[in-house]
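Appendix B, Record 12. Input sequence as logged:
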Amino acid sequence: VVFNISFIAVLQDFIPILLLLSHSASSSDASSSSSWMATPFHHVVKEEVVYSRWRSVIQKVVKLPKGTIVDYDIIDQKGAGAVTIFAWNSKNKTATLVKEYQPGPHQYLMGCAAGLIDECPRKHDSNPLTAAVCELEEELHLRGGTWYRLTEPEKTVPMDKYCITQITPFLVVDPSIVENPRPMDDEEDIEIIQGVTVPEILNMIRTGCMNVVGSWACLLAIEKLRELGEII
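Logged structural output:
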C-alpha cells in the first residue's frame, strides 16, 4: 500500500510534465508540415530565359542567406504544372500503366499516365483534374471512374530541385474503356499495359523500370489503395 501511494504521488508530480509534452508533440505534428516548407530568405538577383522551345532554361542568380551568389540553370516545362494518373481495376486488383519511350534515358520505361496542364481555357484552363481526365483518355483509353487526389487539397509537389513544374498526382478507380479515345500527342510512343499487380509495380520501382516521378506516383496510389481497403 505504501508503494502504491508513493507511486501515485510521483505520478501526480509528473502529470503536468506529461501533459505539456503531449501538447508540444501535438503542436509539433500540426505545424511540422509548414515548418518543413518554411523558406529562408533568398534574394533573386536575376532571372532570365536563356533558351526556349518545348521547355525553357532560365538563368536564375540567387543570393543565399550566407551571402554567396549562385548561378542556377532552371527548367520550365511551361503550362500550369503537370499531373500523373494511376488507374486501378478493383475487380481484378490490377493497374493499367504505360510503357513509354523516354528520350532522356533513351529507353522504354513503365509508368502512370501523365501530362502537362494546359493554361488555355479551351483545353485544361489550368485545372489539374481536367488535365488528368484528358490524359487518362489519351494515354490509357479510359474514362470516368472514382477519382482521388493524392496530395492535400491545393497542394502540389515540385518535380525536381532544378525544375519549376509542380505535380498533382491522382488515383482513379474503375474507369471504363473508351472506344474512340482522344489521339495521343505526336511525340509520344506509348504502349498500354493492363493487368499489372502491386508486387510487379514494386519490383519495377526497385529494378529501375520506372523513373522517379512515376515511382513516387505509384507509391502514393498504393498507399491510398491500402487506406481504401482495396489491397492489404
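The longest helix spans residues 2-36.
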